[in-house]
Amino acid sequence: MLKTSFKASITAIAVLLAGCSTMSNMYYSVEKSIEDKEFNDRVSESQMLVREAKALLAENDYDKAKQYLDQAYKLFPRQASLHATYQEYYQILGNEKLARLASKRYENMVVRSEALNRKGRIAMVELEKYILAKDLFSLSLIYHDQNTSTLVNIATLGLTTDDYELANVSLSLLSKMGHQSPEASLIEYLLAQRTGDNERLGIVKLLMKINWPESKQYKFIDFHDGYQLEQEQMG
Asked: Strand (E) positions, the chain?
């Protein structure tokens, strides 16, 4: 059930991030791939095969897991989770040479993903080029579909552009990954505030008070709530 839910969240993120845009020449060739449905389908199927392979490794079905990984590689080889699972497979078999190679490839994909994520952050925050930011975040997730920094930025983009569905899907996916951070919690708090969800607002604030009482994010909302209460009392 969780695996199905996780896959649905990944698919939803891909759909919400998809769309036509005009990018600089640097990203034009990649943009054409993003807009190509066949390419998107290959990436999605490859990611699904990687998740199935991980489940098979946990069940000690190594031969079938390797078949799934090889199929995923043929569909789309440039993804961190694929090489991380290859590394796990080779470590189980005791093949340290291939495990190190897979680890190196994994690290390369993570570096590419994070570079695109940083560029997306610049496009969103400094340039206010939201369509470009969306494309860059989409590319980042193609290289590393579990890049939590990218997902936090996507949630921020959703909040910034009033795309609350995008923000909610991203936060949901972070939750399924077990990710917790004051940054993600602040976005969830502001989202609840925007949508008038007072119950969610209270829960998020309480969790932040318990987990990150000294964080600047918690201090921000605590000050904001205190100021708001003071204004209400004065009024």
From this structure: none
Return the structure tokens found at 179: 């990710």
Per residue in 37-78, pLDDT tens? 788 889 989 999 999 999 999 999 999 999 999 999 999 999
User: Can you give the pTM of this predicted structure?
Assistant: 0.83
Give the separation between CA 87 and CA 33, rounded to whole angstroms: 28
| Position 225 in a domain | no
| Sign of the CA dihedral with 52 first, then 53, 57, and 59 last | positive
Give the domain extent around 119: 2-144
CATH of the domain at 103: 1.25.40
Direct distance between the N- and C-terminal alpha carbons of the chain, in angstroms, rounded to an integer: 50
State the Cα–Cα distance between residues 103 and 141, nearest whole angstrom: 18
Q: Among 203, 162, 211, 163, which residue's Cα sits nearest to residue 183?
A: 211
How many domains in the chain?
A: 1
